[in-house]
Write a structure and sequence with these properties.
Layout: H1 3-11, E1 13-20, H2 26-36, H3 61-66, E2 73-79, E3 82-88, H4 96-102, E4 108-114, H5 121-132, E5 137-142, H6 151-162, E6 165-168, E7 170-173, E8 181-184, E9 189-192, E10 201-204, H7 213-219, H8 221-237, H9 243-247, E11 251-256, H10 265-274, E12 282-283, E13 288-289, E14 297-305, E15 314-322, E16 324-326, E17 330-333, E18 338-341, E19 346-349, E20 352-355, E21 358-360, E22 364-368, E23 378-380, E24 397-403, H11 409-421, E25 426-430, E26 436-440, H12 445-457, E27 461-465, E28 470-475, H13 479-488, E29 493-495, E30 501-505, H14 509-517, E31 522-524
Parallel strand pairs: 1-3, 1-4, 4-5, 5-11, 6-11
Antiparallel strand pairs: 2-3, 7-8, 8-9, 9-10, 12-13, 14-15, 14-23, 15-22, 16-21, 17-18, 17-23, 19-20, 24-26, 24-27, 25-26, 25-29, 28-30, 28-31, 29-30
Length: 534
């Protein structure tokens, strides 16, 4: 493939994630984007028990039972002339670690908000992860067909709470029972909302003012006057859209609509194609890697075991950062210093797979993992690169795991090994003792892990909660100082699944005491960093 063809293919890619608080409508939004892209023929509701039609992105049985997303699904769909790579991140507050890692694999994010609730806690956490990487963000304010907060108040809350400037691209006309649609400020066009209609009805206004008789006839005098006043206020005092500010993460375009009713999504998809960035350069420890470089490189941001219960497989998800990927090609696993053939690469529509012959920078590909990959691994065509920014976060909840059947210890070790490798749970082993301690970022993850151990590995286990509220990885260049520290804290010292030393803490107040008593020790909240906490 020549350079021109490579650059054309890369320019067609858009790789983004949806971030939101639970119940903002994220899974519904995901389904509708796939529907618009022609990837599915029928959108399934999150809890469609009667029809047995479940959301495409919720493939795990537990997700179907609870009506929540607990894993990150990767979906690819076409829209117009672009290839859209959508990562459907877990929306529940208890699955934040997987979500954090997933956000390292995207070039932009769509922040979904409930018009009645505004900026919620999980939205803030996920926004902070995006802001730390200067990830470009668009915002979609959902459920405008229900009563909610005033649009100006929502914009002000985004700016003050998240610290990012906003500029509405579409503006709502009414709300709840009086919701009539949105006005597209850039296209000077009304998009009329008609209940039970499949699509919005566009009304072009080119050459017309908002107080023209056609607008009054369409909306009625009162709504037309309200819209004209609000648009004048936005034009006079609001932020002007600036592409550079958006792409540097400083300005968020805002859209209004109703994902459930397929309304307001077309302007959003148009903006994702025309405004959201194509694959961006990526930082490695050694250098910045450009997407249009000839040679393939990428990193593994997620490992998922047992997506197909019939085959007990493991799939490693690669974000391609540069070049051209071919089925069956050999790649260099930098951490291991060895070559590995990337056979049977797949792309996903939730659990449905299709074999891939080729892929390009920006694409996400799943490859069979025989147990050689780890999260954060860099794959190249020979160059020694180490992509940065795929951390493991310190857990906040802990339990001791015991077997209901002592004869199943081998199966338990296998289960914990695989689940820890894919990042579903962290496993700690006390330096003195043989018990297994599990750590998670969100407490509900214990339910997921227990469910998967039983249903995927056939092992029944009991979990006993432990009184710890934090963990920190510990490092020290002075061997004697580390030995002294380890002896003194032996009752709470552990090794993680990668044989790195960590200490379990009842609360973070104890960390201050330890820093004063053992000043040579470095404490880290992520396992890929040895930066001391301030």
């Amino acid at each position: 493939m020549n350079q021109k063809q490579l650059e054309q293919e890369i320019a067609r890619r858009r790789t983004f994630a949806i971030i939101s608080h639970p119940d903002a409508g994220k899974t519904t939004m995901t389904e509708k984007l796939l529907l618009y892209g022609g990837a599915i023929n029928m959108a399934g509701s999150v809890k469609a028990k009667r029809s047995k039609k479940f959301a495409t992105s919720d493939w795990m049985e537990l997700e179907k039972q609870r009506g929540i997303s607990v894993t990150s699904s990767v979906m690819k769909f076409p829209y117009m002339d672009c290839e859209m790579n959508l990562i459907d991140t877990p929306g529940h507050q208890d699955f934040s670690e997987d979500t954090y890692r997933t956000l390292t694999a995207v070039d932009s994010a769509l922040m979904l908000m409930d018009a009645a609730n505004g900026v919620e806690e999980q939205t803030k956490k996920l926004f902070e992860v995006c802001a730390a990487r200067n990830t470009p963000i668009m915002a979609f304010i959902n459920k405008m067909d229900r009563e909610g907060r005033e649009p100006f108040a929502l914009l002000e809350e985004i700016e003050t709470t998240l610290g990012i400037a906003v500029t509405p691209v579409t503006w709502p006309i009414g709300m709840g029972p009086t919701f009539r649609g949105v006005y597209h400020r850039i296209h000077n066009q009304l998009l009329i909302y008609e209940k039970d209609a499949e699509r919005s009805r566009p009304v072009p206004l080119k050459g017309l003012t908002l107080d023209a008789p056609e607008v009054v006839q369409e909306l009625g005098a009162e709504l037309a006057e309200q819209l004209r006043t609000e648009i004048e206020l936005l034009d006079g005092a609001g932020e002007i859209f600036d592409l550079d500010r958006y792409r540097s993460g400083k300005l968020a375009p805002v859209f209004f609509g109703s994902a459930l009713n397929n309304f307001g999504l077309e302007p959003l998809l148009e903006a994702l194609i025309n405004t959201a960035p194509a694959p961006l350069p990526r930082e490695a420890q050694e250098r910045v890697v450009l997407p249009n470089e000839e040679k393939f490189s990428g990193f593994i941001f997620k490992i998922q075991a047992n997506m197909d219960p019939n085959h007990r497989d493991r799939v490693a998800f690669i974000r391609i950062c540069s070049g051209y990927f071919q089925r069956g090609m050999k790649a260099h696993i930098v951490r291991l210093g060895k070559e590995h053939r990337l056979g049977r690469p797949t792309q996903f529509m939730a659990q449905d797979r299709s074999l891939v012959d080729e892929a390009f920078a920006g694409d996400i590909v799943g490859i069979h993992d025989p147990g050689v990959f780890k999260i954060g691994d860099t794959l190249t065509e020979g160059e020694s690169l180490h992509y940065t920014g795929v951390p493991v976060f310190a857990p906040e909840h802990f339990c001791r795991v015991t077997l209901a059947d002592p004869m199943k210890s081998k199966q338990l070790y296998k289960a914990l090994d695989q689940l820890s490798e894919e990042g579903a749970v962290q496993v700690f082993r006390p330096i003195y003792g043989t018990e297994q301690i599990l750590g998670v970022v969100g407490i509900l993850q214990f339910d997921v892990v227990q469910y998967r151990i039983q249903h995927e590995y056939g092992v029944r286990v009991n979990f006993t909660r432990l009184p710890y509220g934090a963990a920190r990885w510990v490092f020290c260049d002075d061997e004697k100082a580390m030995e002294e520290f380890t002896r003194a804290q032996a009752h709470v010292m552990c090794l993680d699944q990668h044989e790195q030393k960590a200490i379990l803490l009842e609360d973070l107040w104890r960390l201050k005491f330890l820093k004063e008593r053992f000043p040579k020790i470095t404490y880290s909240a992520t396992s890929d960093s040895v930066k001391a906490e301030s």
